[in-house]
Amino acid sequence: MGVLTEDMKDLVREQSLGFVATVCPDGTPNLSPKGTTTVWDDDHLVFADIASPGTVENLRANPSVEVNVVDPILRKGYRFKGTATIHAEGELFERVIAWYGTPDAGIQRDLPGRARAIVLIRVEKAEELVSPVYSWGQTEEEVSAWWLRYWEERRTEAPPHSTQL
User: DSSP characters for 49-110?
Assistant: First the structure.
């Protein structure tokens, strides 16, 4: 059995948005959302480099990485720490790019010609992330209902940057 549990794999595949933290050459953090984040196998996550030059360059210099994937409605998720490898060509690159177009990937994306590389992350440690709202005694149903109402109200309001014609 690998590091990734079935619950972790289900959440990552369902959300497909991972926030990837790397270290810049000057030691400062870099955080970047990756909409192609998914599970490769029991020990690896993967994302495609579509528009990630800073993230990839940081990983070339320092392969340490953390990926956070959170359900924005339940306010629960996971933190994955590990080591990344970058694959811009070769058999693994081609296999992963083709795999993204299948249901097994969890997300179906047409990546041939769009991805410059794939980043394979060997997960060495995984921890649960839980919002502090749960420490106040709220249930998942209450938290979910609150956020669903919040987003529904926001959807019906005009965005603050819009103008009335």
Answer: ESS-HHHHHHHHH--EEEEEEEETTTTEEEEEEEEEEEESSSHHHHHHHHHTTSGGGSS---
Neighbours of 33 (CB within 10 A): 12
Query: Is the sign of the CA dihedral 139, 143, 144, 145 positive or negative?
Result: positive
Residue with tokens 């440690």, as numbered in its chain: 125
Burial category of 121 from C-beta neighbours within 10 Å (exposed 0-12, middle 13-18, buried 19 and up): buried
Q: Fold for domain 6-132?
A: Pnp Oxidase; Chain A (2.30.110)
pTM for the structure as a whole:
0.88
Give residue limits of the domains in the chain.
Answer: 6-132
Q: Measure the CA–CA gap between 87 and 84, rounded to whole angstroms.
A: 10
> At a CB cut-off of 8 Å and minimum separation 6, what does 111 contact?
36, 48, 50, 97, 100, 101
Question: What would the pLDDT profile of 38-57 be if each residue is shown by its tens digit?
Answer: 999 999 999 999 988 899 99
